[in-house]
């Protein structure tokens, strides 16, 4: 009599697989792949951020205007009324003979939709370019936020794009409200550094001017960061911006206040050197996110391309600004669309509660099966335990995340996986009652029950797949555990138990006591 | 051990009218509840903010209410959550400002109410709430559609229609219970309802499979008799599998913690209703739909005949005689 049959061998292999791959997760060993706990179980912060992509379009239009201004200044080409209206740049060329020159220059800028009316130009971004700009701004925001969080020193931050304009940020390492706030501030900081020339000719009029009057001179009025009563009149088009910063570090000034030392790239350094050389004696405003941090006098040409931002930072602020500068500016502001934050103690409570539910649910099913079906119940229980091990092992292998609904899914799977064994054993009992021999009853029982079991599993799997496709975070976890559980039950509850019966067949046939095995005479 | 006598055939169909009556009452009551009281949508679908706070001592609910009255969160709803120390504060709005959100403000506002820890803040903006609603509806209708397709492939149309009726019956009553007990409807409740969809259908399919088997093997044409026999034969299977699932769902409900209590409550009600309907209701629909055993047998015979002819043709074709 052979004890090993192919079903039993597969079942034993799956038991070994289940145990080996679930050990790292169950015993929390240092090596090996483990299941990661969802934010609802380990605590942490989940946020959905929306990128205001339109801002990226606006700023691109601004850049177009800037380059036209530089070009016309450089080439001494006379233009009038350069302004931005409804996302388009409008200006008039004074001399018709200079239009070819202007056209030639505009050809260099890609993605422009140019319309001309006599001498008046209207420049728009093409629809294609707007879409591209928006798309790029989200990708860039993801990159920037990821860089910032990496440097912030949080463990395993996740930053991924979702859909057209949204970004999902998950921070499992957040433990306190203060950490959470700091992380949020770091993410949302635009970190837009601009070095701007103070308009010294009209500097004394700054407190009497309106912003539209300032705009007429190509100026803007900015407030001081520490005192909003102090105002500066600066040239609207910056000399340099943060994109030319290659490094930023926290340092200290003579009075031991934290400052930020930044280094420019070679282009930035050249422009900075030229500008400071030409403008000795004038002031240079260091502007961060639209606030003036300082406006020192230029004493001499500054070569080497380094500068500093000072202006009453706290140590933490300085650190954040430095990180933000190093990782680049956000191309557009972000808003909070959804936030789910779970404290670590609540996560621990949830784990405990669901473990209690799992163990007591398990025990109830176990005891019931043994009382009702005797040895057939024991065999079903072996399959059930293996099933749970396999769920854990497969999840660990794929690095899946266990969430609270996922835990509920495992508990539910225990109830449903045993379903297959109930169907099979009921069929076997029926056949025994009808007078079949036990070996025949077992064989026929399995084949008769197959269809019903497949129905049960297919309907549940279909729903699980849809739940995975349309659910979010934790619900996806439910869909995952339930799908794995159902698939594993095919291996354990059907194949595995069948293998055990086959191996025991000679004993069962010799025994004749069907009550002992199936709880029925 | 056996719960049901295996040689007894219960007369389910003879007593189908009282059960259909009971189901109609439950069904109509559920519809009325859903139309008048409606569902208590949680923040996942309605948008808003909830803050779960745990105090070191019993939570001073009145004091919290007083404190909040003086702020712009005066209309928020405060309820005990699980234990005496914990409360949930429900706020209708949400904040889109990343640097200073409702959580930060709550932290400051609640300081005078005692020593506490904010354990959970869930904030769903209006836009996301709308999206989740859309996705939820999509998941629900797609599931129904998939089930319908599955059924129509699996069964004769009256069988399929009867199981759809049973399905609608189960889900409606489960939702009626959700409305009656003001269970907060969030994503997890949707997941529970979708799970029930699969679960309740599969219970019905097993009974119907048996009925079809009974029709094919019986010589008589008495549908009610065949149904009674089939339902009686699957009775212990139907009750037992429901029982094991019920065990685990009940432990989830009682021990699983406050956060998933709505989820397990929905499953608990749904499994009970689903089991009841597959025993007492689903097959009654078949009788009400005037399913005729005779017609079915003729059609089945025709099908078998066609199949045989096809095989014959194929055999001839393969032998090269055509």
TrEMBL record, chain B:
GO biological process: intracellular protein transmembrane transport; protein targeting; protein transport by the Sec complex
Name assigned to this protein: Protein-export membrane protein SecF
HAMAP family attached to this UniProt entry: SecF_B
Pfam families cross-referenced by the UniProt entry: Sec_GG, SecD_SecF_C
Cellular compartment(s): Cell membrane
Family, per entry: Belongs to the SecD/SecF family. SecF subfamily.
Entry annotated with the keyword Disulfide bond: no
Keyword set, alphabetical order: Cell membrane, Membrane, Protein transport, Translocation, Transmembrane, Transmembrane helix, Transport
Membrane topology field: Multi-pass membrane protein
């Amino acid at each position: 009599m052979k004890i090993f049959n192919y079903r039993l061998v597969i079942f034993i292999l799956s038991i070994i697989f289940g145990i080996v791959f679930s050990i790292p997760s169950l015993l929390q060993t240092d090596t090996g792949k483990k299941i990661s706990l969802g934010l609802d179980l380990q605590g942490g912060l989940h946020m959905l951020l929306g990128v205001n992509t339109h801002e990226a379009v606006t700023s691109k239009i601004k850049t177009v205007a800037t380059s036209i201004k530089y070009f016309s200044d450089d080439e001494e080409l006379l233009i009038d009324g350069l302004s931005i209206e409804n996302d388009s740049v409008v200006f008039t060329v004074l001399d018709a003979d200079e239009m070819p020159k202007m056209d030639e220059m505009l050809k260099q800028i890609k993605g422009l939709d140019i319309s001309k009316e006599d001498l008046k130009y209207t420049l728009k971004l093409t629809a294609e370019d707007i879409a591209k700009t928006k798309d790029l701004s989200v990708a860039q925001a993801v990159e920037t936020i990821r860089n910032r969080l990496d440097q912030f020193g949080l463990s395993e931050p996740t930053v991924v794009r979702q859909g057209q304009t949204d970004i999902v940020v998950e921070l499992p390492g957040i433990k306190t409200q203060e950490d959470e706030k700091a992380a949020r501030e770091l993410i949302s900081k635009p970190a837009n550094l601009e070095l701007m020339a103070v308009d010294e000719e009209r500097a004394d009029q700054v407190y009497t001017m309106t912003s539209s009057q300032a705009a007429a001179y190509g100026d803007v009025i900015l407030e001081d960061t520490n005192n909003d009563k102090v105002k500066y009149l600066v040239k609207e088009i910056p000399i340099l911006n943060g994109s030319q910063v290659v490094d930023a570090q926290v340092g200290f000034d003579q009075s031991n206040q934290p400052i930020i030392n930044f280094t420019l790239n070679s282009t930035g350094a050249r422009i900075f050197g030229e500008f400071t050389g030409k403008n000795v004696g004038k002031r240079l405003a260091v502007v961060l996110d639209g606030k003036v941090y300082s406006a020192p006098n230029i004493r001499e040409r500054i070569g080497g391309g380094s500068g500093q931002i000072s202006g009453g930072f706290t140590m933490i602020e300085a650190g954040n600004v430095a990180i933000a500068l190093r990782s680049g500016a956000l191309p557009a502001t972000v808003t909070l669309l959804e936030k789910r934050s779970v404290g670590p103690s609540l996560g621990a409570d949830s784990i405990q509660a669901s473990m209690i539910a799992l163990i007591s649910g398990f025990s109830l099913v176990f005891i019931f099966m043994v009382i009702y079906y005797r040895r057939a119940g024991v065999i079903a229980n072996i399959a059930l335990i293996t099933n749970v091990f396999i769920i854990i092992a497969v999840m660990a292998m794929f690095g899946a995340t266990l969430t609270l609904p996922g835990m509920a899914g495992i508990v539910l799977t225990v109830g449903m996986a045993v379903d297959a064994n109930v169907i099979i054993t009921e069929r076997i009992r029926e056949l025994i009652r009808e007078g079949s021999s036990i070996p025949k009853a077992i064989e026929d029982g399995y084949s008769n029950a197959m269809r019903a079991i497949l129905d049960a599993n297919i309907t549940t799997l279909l729903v699980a797949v849809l739940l995975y496709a349309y659910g979010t975070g934790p619900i996806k976890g439910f869909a995952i555990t339930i799908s794995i559980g159902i698939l594993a039950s095919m291996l354990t509850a059907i194949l595995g138990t069948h293998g055990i019966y086959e191996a025991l067949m000679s004993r069962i046939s010799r025994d004749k006591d069907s009550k002992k095995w199936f709880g029925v005479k | 051990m056996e719960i049901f006598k295996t040689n007894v055939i219960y007369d389910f169909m003879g007593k189908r009218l009282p059960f259909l009556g009971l189901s109609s009452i439950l069904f109509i009551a559920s519809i009325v509840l859903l139309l008048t009281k409606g569902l208590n949508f949680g923040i996942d679908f309605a948008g808003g903010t909830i803050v779960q706070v745990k105090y070191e001592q019993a939570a001073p609910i009145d004091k919290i209410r007083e404190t909040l009255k003086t702020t712009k969160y005066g209309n928020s709803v405060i309820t005990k959550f699980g234990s005496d120390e914990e409360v949930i504060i429900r706020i209708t709005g949400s904040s889109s400002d990343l640097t200073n959100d409702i959580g930060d403000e709550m932290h400051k506002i609640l300081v005078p109410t005692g020593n506490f820890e904010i354990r959970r803040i869930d904030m769903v903006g209006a836009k996301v709430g709308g999206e989740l609603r859309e996705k939820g509806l999509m998941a629900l209708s797609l599931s129904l559609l998939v089930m319908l397709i599955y059924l129509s492939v699996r069964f004769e149309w009256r069988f399929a229609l009867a199981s759809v009726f049973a399905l609608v019956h189960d889900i409606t009553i489960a939702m009626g219970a959700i409305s009656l007990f003001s269970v907060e409807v969030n994503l997890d409740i949707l997941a529970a309802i979708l799970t029930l969809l699969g679960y309740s259908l599969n219970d019905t399919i097993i009974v119907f499979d048996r009925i079809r088997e009974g029709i094919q093997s019986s010589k008589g044409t008495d549908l009610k008799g065949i149904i009674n026999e089939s339902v009686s034969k699957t009775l212990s299977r139907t009750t037992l599998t429901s029982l094991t699932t019920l065990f685990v769902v009940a432990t989830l409900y009682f021990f699983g913690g406050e956060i998933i209590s709505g989820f397990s409550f929905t499953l608990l009600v749904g499994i009970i209703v689903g089991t009841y309907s597959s025993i007492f209701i689903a097959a009654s629909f078949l009788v009400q739909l005037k399913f005729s055993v005779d017609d079915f047998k003729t059609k089945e015979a025709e099908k078998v005949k066609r199949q045989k002819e096809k095989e014959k043709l194929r055999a001839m074709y393969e032998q090269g005689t055509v």
